[in-house]
Amino acid sequence: MPHLLIEGGHRLTGTVPAHGAKNAVLPLLAATLLPCGESVLHNAPRLSDVNGCLDILRQFGCRCAVDGRTVTVCADAADHPVISDDLMRKMRSSIVFLGAMMARFGEAHLSYPGGCELGPRPIDLHLAGFRQLGAEIREERGQLHAFLPHGRFIGNTVSLSFPSVGATENLLLAAVTAEGTTTILNAAREPEIADLAAYLTACGARIVLDDGTVTVEGVRQLTACEHTVMPDRIEVATYLAAVAVTGGEAELTSMCPAHVATILPVFSEMGCRVREYPDRVTLVAPGKLRRIPFLRTMPYPGFPTDAAAPLLAASTLAEGTSVFVESIFESRYKYTGELARMGARIKTEGRVAVVEGVPALSGAAVHCTDLRGGAALVVAALAADGVTAIHQLSHLDRGYDSLEQTLTILGADIRRVG
Ligand code: EPZ
User: Fold this and answer.
1) What are the pocket residues of ligand 1 if the criterion is a CB atom closer than 6 Å to any ligand atom?
2) Are residues 274 and 190 part of one domain?
């Protein structure tokens, strides 16, 4: 099976661009089911999850084309409201298609998304919200069968008990062509929501985002348009962690500093010199990183859960002990066992991880346990003594576009073999 071989010890230096955001392009691809005509998404990252979404859109009957990082989708001929089990299993986040499927077809049939490496991934908030907008949803034998008795969603007020990103996106996709007005209270504030709203608004939707409240006035018809996918803030955090842990200095371009406003201070706290510019950020790392006294992940604008793993990996070589508290997912620390194989000293208890900095890590054979855990292994391998072999690359390929090429530009010794 293909694996990465990384020889650690090379300072990362240079300039690399951020790519389009995985967590923006997935809901955007679901949204292309709604308008008539041909949608064009620029700056779409080349990821296996994007390919998974395109397979699902083609299964609906959409015409999809990819040219580099430009994706074109025309849903005019779509008439098949089903996602097959194999496609659902390939990508649990395909639940984000449910709202758009019902809005477009009046019905939707798909298997219940399983849990994933991060723990159970419930969708109760999604389903409760759809029901409040008039949907009838039967859950039986692991399948979801959803219908709109009135043919359209009916606008209503939905209050989320947790600012779920996916539920907010799903309900937004349901509301844009609903009959009447929908208000989503305690909605997620992640920038990916604003990116989705920008595309839908350009297609003719009437959306107001006001901090944690989303108000949507339903329209009958949307018309496809072009949209450029926002930059990936988690990818930026990952590469900054890689530069920081190798004592390097680099510039990340084509990114949005505001999206990483709670991440950059952590690098400064670790002793890095960080400078922000309108669409780029520079980081100069110290010879030895300082510890992170306390870091709690929170919904946006708090510190993002996805960026914790790469930072935790960098903290394994910091001076002193770092403490992390994970507030979003139940089991986000599976990867720390793999870091321990490299000599990291990490104690986890539920949602808390205590990382005691060590003088050095040693290369080892390790396995990705999930997407961001895999990123943590890459960060650690870049600073470890000797060569690290990283297996189960399918996790990494879901969320990092051109990982090896980007790190090679920065001076890493990294190869994909097998
Ligand atoms: C999105 O997942 C992202 N995925 C995740 O990124 C990210 O970590 C997460 O938001 C939080 O920011 C995509 O955008 C494709 P949630 P999502 O609904 O929508 C609970 C990555 O590595 N919850 O905000 O699934 C849930 O159990 C991935 O790029 C319910 O209880 O996140 C979790 O504890 C990982 N009921 C919390 O909310 C529900 O109906 C956050 O979930 C829905 C969620």
Assistant:
1) 22-23, 26, 93, 121-126, 162, 164-167, 188, 190, 304-306, 328-329, 371-372, 399
2) no
53 is catalytic: no
> How far does residue 404's CA lie from ligand 1's centre (Å)?
27
CATH number at residue 371: 3.65.10.10
Residue pointed to by tokens 């980081």: 283
- Is the domain of 148 the same as that of 215? yes
Using CA positions, which residue lies closest to atom 15 of ligand 1? 23
Predicted model pTM? 0.98
Selecting among 36, 53, 116, 225, the annotated active-site residue is: 116
Give 85-107 pLDDT, tens digit per residue: 999 988 878 999 999 999 999 99
Q: Which residue of 161, 164, 170, 173 sits with most ligand 1 atoms within 8 Å of its CB, as the best mutation to test the pocket?
A: 164
Query: Number of folded domains in the chain?
Result: 2
∠ CA 33-214-197, nearest 5°, is 40
The 10s digit of each residue's pLDDT in 158-171 is 999 999 999 999 99
